[in-house]
Batch of 2 targets.
Target 1
Amino acid sequence: MNTNDPGWQESVYQLFKQHNIRQVIYVPDAGHAPLIDRCLEDPQIKAGPLTNEFEGPGMCAGAWLGGERSVLLMQSSGVGNIINALGLVRHCTIPFLTLVTMRGEWGEFNPWQLHMGQSTTTTLEASGVVCNRADSAEDVAPVVESSINLAFHSYAQVAVIISQRVMGTKVFE
Amino acid sequence: MDLTNGPYRRRGGAMTTPRLERRAAIVELLENRGDLLIVAGLGSAIWDVESAGDHPLNFHILGAMGSIVPTALGLAIAQPTRRVLAVTGDAEILMGFGTVPTTAVRKPENLTIVVIDNGRFGETGSQLSHTGAGVDIAGMATAAGFSSVTTVTDQKDLADARNVIQNGAGPSMIVLKVDAHMPKVVMPARDGAWLKHRFRNSLLGEDAAKE
Ligand SMILES: Cc1ncc(C[n+]2csc(CCOP(=O)(O)OP(=O)(O)O)c2C)c(N)n1
């Protein structure tokens, strides 16, 4: 990455601003870290952590009932935690957007990540969530923007799958 | 360790504290509810809320067990000038109890959670639940840092509880200790998309459907 490049997380933050995202909730992943920091610094965005990604669909539903757009940030292992809760946004046709940073694929070092990493998209699709994948850093902003539109204009449940290739493989040293 | 399945084999169980009748308690709590925003959930909390009267600002969740408090929290954050009430059962809230610390750290002053605690998985045949075996939801909410936590065992304390819902500085939790009797089902509209539109229409105005 060149040093003047603010990074995909900054572009995503700018998209959140442009598209009036007012609530951001997360169980942190290192890939989302700069985006989480930007959201926490911004008084216009109400951001906070969850104990479990399972809380995400409910909070997004509540935000929408109250007239606000929200986004859930999580890593791929969190997808396994939200399946039943997705019934809420799906049955009620509530716009739902999650940005999923992938583990368990591109050169993964931790074998425990493969279980959810290799079933993230299948599981989400089986649950009626549209999955839009970004395989490079340049892809992330356009895929996020089109997914914001799909979720909030077409009342869809959408996941942006951000490849592990975008973050680089985590190494434990 | 209890190798006999302990209390779970017993449906009855001695009542150590006086207990409220759930339906009468909820009806009394919702008297003059005004423009309170209510999220109610499975198992049987919905039937009690519905028996207090249908209202466009009621949103009922008949699935996604564990989602009542998260939904009420997202709503309370979106609508800080309105009072928000979650009505749920002891097993429903325990399915995703992490939502209690999540709520505590967000500090929504306008949110109250009412837990109808019958010590049972009422809706599924009244099996003894964790609270029935001694788990103290109010104690856990206190430990999480809720601003106000009240356990109500007596009808005469319901007026104070109603005041907490309408005026208290939340996040507040009210645990209603109710007996195990299951009143008749009072079924609300079950179509969540319809409930959502009706709720948003009433809260945000007709243009909400055009967003
Ligand atoms: C994920 C999931 N597991 C199990 C059930 C079945 N179920 C429906 S209601 C209920 C128990 C509800 O008990 P509680 O919240 O205490 O309410 P009560 O009916 O006792 O008032 C269960 C286990 C379900 N709906 N969803």
Target 2
Amino acid sequence: MVDSEPAETIALELRGIGKAYGRGANAKRAVDDVSLRVRCGEVYGFLGPNGAGKSTTIRMALSLIRPTAGEALIFGRHPTEKGALARVGSLVDGGTFYGFLSGRDNLRVLARTQGGDGARIDEVLERVELDRDAKRKVKGYSTGMKQRLGVAAALLDNPDLVILDEPANGLDAAGIQDMRALIRGLAAEGKAVFLSSHLLHEVEQICDRVAVVHKGKLLREATVGELLDVGDALRIEAEPGDAALAALGGRWPAQRTETGLTVQASRADTPEIVRQLAAANVDIFAIGPDGHSLEDIFLTMTRDSDA
Amino acid sequence: MLDAVYAEALKLRRHRATWLMVWIYPIVVALILIGVLLYGAVAPAGEAGTTATAEQWINNTLIFWEIPKSAPGRFLIAGFAALVFAGEYGWNTWKLIIPARARWQLIAAKWVVVVGFVLISLIVTDLIGLIGELLGSLQGEAIPAGVTIGALLEAHIRAIGFALAPILYTVAFAGLFGVLTQSILATVILSIALVIIEGLLPLLAVLGHNYMPGISTPLIEVLPLYHVANVMAWAKGQGMTLALGPDAAIGFSFGASLAILSAWIAAAAAATQLRFARQDLN
Ligand SMILES: Nc1ncnc2c1ncn2[C@@H]1O[C@H](COP(=O)(O)OP(=O)(O)OP(=O)(O)O)[C@@H](O)[C@H]1O
Ligand SMILES: [Mg+2]
């Protein structure tokens, strides 16, 4: 059983945590009975569409808001307990800072509030490549710079658990690449990373495990591979579509789409399908796995959970 | 705790609003002093007209301790306290610091910084004023005999003590309003309203006594408005007697008013802590 696990390896545990806004009949359950465990050395994704309750859950773990049910435990301790959050670094709302202070002064304020001396400020500023802009007021920072300063703030106290709410929001392609490398690096150092996202492709490349939330409820916890494995399908762009459909001859169930067809078949079937289509004089423009969008996965899952 | 205070001071010491509402006093007084000294250097020396006694002279040097008792002075203190307590909501920065330290310490640090900054500013202003008197005496305005360092120090420490009452009272309620309204503007408006109502107290007391004597008098006796005014009046040696009508008045001893006022300050501070401890920061 998981319970025999040494407590030390469980960085974050949510036990039936819930938050209801409002009272009585008007109460809205933003988060409902979510339980999960994040272990040291893993990157754990918290995936859900807008309004799913991701930020609310993260804020409860950080003691910013009070759960109305259940509890969050950080290395086995309540976040409100003295020193419990000392091992946690966090980034919420894309980095919240004093706009009238410089980037470096913001980190100095944070370091002092944490009770530290700020010896690591230069190191973390360098790590997020902000050392040259550290003297400028945060007011003048771009979204991406604020986000990077937020990461620097999260890493300032050398935490064992890093909690990031939508770390990729507002970053350009290069920024996302950097962020991915940084997050993987943290896990490689043995830290636990808990991050939220509303985009599947963002989490699939960096997370070891993913929890899917929808309307406040945890629908499923799985590895990324398991999550994407909702049945194999290939997407084919081909013309004429009707001829293509006929050529596959019912061997693989297929459906017409705007640009061609989707075929219920695995990757290994690709060469055979291409041969069949070519023999039928169909022009093939593209063929590849039918990427499941997050929406598809949610639809499947909510259908499953309703059934 | 010291770290939390240091962090808070680091945040605010060079904020534009701190210059405008706190550091303004020593700056303005220093500028005036320089102007007066320059004028004294070029103007022909007037006849030395020192008729003041030692006690009067010392009392004149206490002028800057009237600032926290005056309405404009308290507006500025309330404005600064509003910035410190309510600012984090508008800046969205509670999320940065709450995970870093116990909530009650964050609020306590704000208390220390607001009261500390105001006191530092007024003490520095006071010292500049005294330096001015000293330099003025070199230009010919004699300091009356009988003014000793000891007497001067005692008078100034006493003045600081009395000034603490309106400062702590203003900060306590601005802090509470800040945490309740989560808005700098609302906090400033409520704090100003409190000072204005206090100024209208003589009028309100008479009206209240006239129309609803059964409620008005106990209300005045319980609420802090009269007592803060009374404590400040006692600083000058005589309490404040609030006339209610031709045959009725309210007059509390210094000790009684101080006790009631202290209870209100402690209650407001405790309410601030309790509210903040349970507050959701979305
Ligand atoms: N203070 C509040 N009062 C009432 N409802 C709230 C409050 N804060 C959040 N909610 C509701 O809780 C639900 C979850 O919000 P939350 O911000 O946690 O979602 P999210 O998963 O982070 O979404 P996003 O991807 O848009 O950031 C939403 O329906 C939201 O409207
Ligand atoms: Mg969110």
